[in-house]
Amino acid sequence: MFALLEGVDADLAIRIRSLYDECIEYGAHPNVDGVRLRSEVKPLGNDRYEISTIFIGGEEAVLLSILELTRAMELVYRLLMLTVGDRLRILGVDEHVEKERLHVLQLIAELEQRGAI
Where are the beta strands (DSSP E) in the chain? Predict the structure, then answer.
């Protein structure tokens, strides 16, 4: 899969390989369960949701988990455009997907500024 992705988007392949290697190093999965005790998702309406999570490990562990999940989300947006980008354009949602991807990048930058890395 990495070789195939490398032929399409080398930068994305490098980033996904890095995330994959980290996952293996820390237990073969993003170890969110290692710091999470319980999560609850509440619909707020208008396509908005509130996620409440009880963590152990302090604020730093929470920020690191959120940062890693957010980084993974940005990769998913890029993979979506690579795999079904034409379909998203036909459906007229490609600009919305890109807007959300940019929002996720902004969240990553804010988390990094807070010292989550």
Answer: 36-45, 48-55
Question: Which amino acid does the sequence have at 111?
Answer: L
The contacts of residue 74 (CB under 8 Å, 6+ apart) are 101, 104, 105, 108
82 pLDDT higher than 70: yes
109 pLDDT above the threshold of 70: yes
Task: Output b/e per residue, 31-65; b: 16+ Cβ within 10 A.
Answer: bbeebbeeeeeeeeeeeeeeeeeebeeeeebbbbb
pTM for the complete prediction? 0.56
Q: How far apart (Å, rounded) are the C-alpha atoms in residues 51 and 72?
A: 17
